[in-house]
Write a structure and sequence with these properties.
- The structure is a homodimer.
- By secondary structure, chain A is α/β, with parallel strands linked by helices.
- In chain A, about 45% of the residues lie in helices and about 15% in strands.
- Chain A folds into 3 domains: about 15-65, lambda repressor-like DNA-binding domains (434 Repressor (Amino-terminal Domain), Orthogonal Bundle), CATH 1.10.260; about 70-170 and about 300-325, 3-Layer(aba) Sandwich (Rossmann fold); about 170-295, Rossmann fold.
- The interface between A and B is large, with 68 and 72 residues.
- Chain A binds a DNA duplex through helix 2 and helix 4.
Chain lengths: ~325, ~325
DNA sequence: TTGAAAGCGCTAACAT
DNA sequence: ATGTTAGCGCTTTCAA
């Protein structure tokens, strides 16, 4: 942490009061637009504000009134993933409409980083928090929630915490996608980059299994590859599957990054395996390979999460209802 | 469902002091780790902190000390554009290393929205601001800067403001890209979605012109299409060019969105025009059409901007040097 | 080593 | 309609 100079001195209400020849209280009243100020005083105050370029200090006001800070926090895993960027934009849009700003923090899917971020949030008076949890361990998040901070969990429901959530229909989306592949005649379908430990991962696996069961096709565990962190490892995992004695005729990637990796692997081997994946890819129509995806509105996920948060913020604590669970629906899209 | 338990008001330092049987001052000292506290007192304070789940209020501290808020603002045009998302991630990484958080605001390239955002920032004690200006009109930004707020301009230098900037080598990148196309034998090269009014636009046009001049090829103004706001209008603009009596044999798109639009137009018409563009596209290797791009590290742009901001924040006002201008270099990448 | 007093910038509550 | 007092949660200053 580098040393810093203090924020440059800004004029305060006292300065305005002095300049306008009134008391600070009159300045406060004049600026808040409330009644009890003569037009003449108000005019003089506004003139002084203009002259000195005064801007009220929101922190001080908030400290005194105990009112909202008009800042909400958004904790994501990786902002550069277009999916989270879209979600963030949705959150920002809603926050903006409510006069609030968004503080964004990326955890890079690292539990320790998430802990740090959360510790920071406990000290910082933000009005509420929207979080995409990095891991299934939510103990530190419970401490935040217990502080009385309204929280909304996005993409993953809370684990042992009494909080709202907005999630994607991971199960239904994967089941439908997988069913279509099975209907196309595929009986050996690979699953790339599954993370059993995460809620989304287990839900998507459940959908995969359900589709197989409904089609009366047995699942071969050798076709399910373990968690892959990035595109390159998704490519490797896919290559491993394609080299099996009985390779899959189709692969399903468990998120947008895994999809890119899988496409590269199939292209490089010249295999004729069909590729499908969770998460839409905006430019998939330009790909040389056909692709089927589970699409849902990432921005909408952010919008709904933020709206739910503001509902909570507007609520009286006493008559607050139990946690809500909202589901974002999915559709299947075929490219090429 | 369990009724949400009444939120306990956040404990303050006084509560800790009472619980530990000491004065608030001792609590402050114990927590700040400073000298002048007996081990016994410190232990009792820490125990009380644990017992009550106390977290200091950073605002109150900041108000009293006048120190930094450890919040910086990042104003971008559109967070969902992968380019700005990457930039934001770079900013966040550096900020995090300096113990600061990032408040992100998207202007959607709208001047009025930018004005609102800036007005908000004038009231909110953030330590500094990194901005990608939405338009060439920087008057409202000057008011922010005049307040003494350290500012760094990213992608576009300030207009009449004494502030640092980090920009891309728009001119050099475009000149090199265009030169390569000319060397490939193209003499009619379209330019898609140029925004003359923006600094980046004029720089890129300058590079386009310079390359033509160096190659001794005359520029045909009919090949230069006006500003296009989104992918769809880029497609339309490209289609218009391709239908010209003497159509271009190559088109250069002026940013990543324009590139997508141009690729779609060329694909849909089955034209044989080569496509090139400013900004890299991560999955371009999967495209069915060849593509040449001007690549640069978007995240690095964010990193350098943030680093420059923290340099300013660490500086004494008196011995502050003049504005710095940093250039991010570009390379040409051919896909397919 | 500890505490009491004062004040950061602002506003609620009570004067006048 | 205006001003005075007090205090939000914290820390600096000064006294004990």
């Amino acid at each position: 942490m580098t040393p810093r100079k203090a924020v440059p001195a800004r004029p305060t209400m006292r300065d305005i009061a002095a300049q306008a020849g009134v008391s600070p209280m009159s300045v406060s009243r004049a600026l808040s637009g409330g009644p009890g100020v003569s037009e003449r005083t108000r005019a003089e105050v506004l003139a002084a504000v203009q002259a000195l370029g005064y801007q009220p200090n929101e922190f001080a006001r908030q400290l005194r009134t105990g009112g909202p800070t008009h800042v909400i926090a958004l904790v994501v895993t990786h902002l550069a993933n277009p999916f989270y960027a879209a979600l963030a934009l949705g959150v920002e849009r809603v926050a903006s409409a409510h006069g609030s700003r968004v503080m964004i923090m990326s955890t890079m899917s690292d539990l320790d980083t998430e802990r740090e971020v959360v510790a920071d949030l406990r000290r910082r008076p933000v009005d509420g928090v929207i979080i995409i949890p990095a891991t299934p361990d939510h103990r530190h998040l419970k401490e935040l929630a217990d502080q009385g901070r309204p929280m909304v969990f996005a993409t993953t429901p809370p684990n042992g915490i009494d909080a709202d959530s907005v999630t994607v229909d991971d199960f239904g989306g994967m089941r439908e996608l997988c069913s279509q592949l099975l209907a196309d005649g595929h009986t050996r379908i690979g699953l790339i980059g599954l993370n059993h430990a995460m809620w989304t991962g287990s839900e998507r696996l459940r959908g995969y299994s359900a589709a197989h069961a409904e089609a009366g096709v047995e699942v071969d565990d050798k076709l399910i590859t373990e968690r892959a962190g990035d595109i390159a490892s998704a490519t490797k995992a896919t290559l491993r599957l394609l080299r099996l004695h009985q390779p899959p005729t189709a692969v399903i990637a468990t998120n947008n990054l895994m999809t890119i990796g899988a496409l590269r692997a199939v292209r490089d081997t010249g295999a004729r395996a069909a590729v499908a994946g969770f998460d839409d890819i905006e430019v998939a129509d330009l790909f040389q390979q056909p692709l089927t995806v589970v699409r849902y509105e990432a921005e909408q996920l952010g919008v709904r999460s933020a709206e739910q948060l503001f509902v909570r913020l507007a609520q009286d604590d006493d008559k607050a209802a139990g946690p809500t669970r909202e589901l974002i629906t999915t559709t299947i899209v075929r490219y090429g």
